Amino acid sequence: MDPKTQGPLVDTASRTSRPGVFAIGNLLHPVDTADIAALDGRHVAEPVRAYLHGQTGPSDGIRILAEPPLRWISPGILRPGDIAPARNRLLLWTDTLVRIPRIVVRQDGNVIARKTLPWPASPGRVFRVPSSVLDKADPGRGSITVSLG
Fold it and tell me: How many CB atoms lie within 10 A of CB 129?
């Protein structure tokens, strides 16, 4: 369980730490609509099928963390060679309205991505960030933090 979301901690393929247990939809990102939850189901279908055919996902992963005013991020684990998250988006929750959010992604204290987004980060709504901000993450290094800069 992720102490920030108080929900399951998942990787980009929606796998939990329990083999064969996947988490999607409002279990991971509350207040989203049913169509978004259904798209999560489509996203997880192939990893579930692979698991049922005996394939296991990578075991090592990098923890992804959110810094205030961002409260949480999902998925919370990036594994080398894994699929991108559903709809190629990281999902975050903010406690503060930021009209023009500037995302800063760091790994081991070094900036690996910056991106200004044209949509606001609003309390009470899931804030979506393109997962491409993780493209330069190094699986051999430490955790990743996402912040508003």
Answer: 23
Q: What confidence tens digit (pLDDT) does each residue in 83-94 have?
A: 888 889 999 999
- Ranges of each domain in the chain: 60-148
Distant-in-sequence, close-in-space partners of 52: CB < 8 Å, separation ≥ 6: none
Q: Average pLDDT, stretch 96-120?
A: 96
Sign of CA dihedral 81, 121, 1, 39: negative
DSSP assignment of 30-58, as one string? TT--HHHHHHHHHHHHHHHHHHHTT----
Angstrom distances, CA of residue 21 to CA of 16, 24, 25, 74: 6, 10, 14, 16
Q: Is the pTM of this model over 0.85?
A: yes
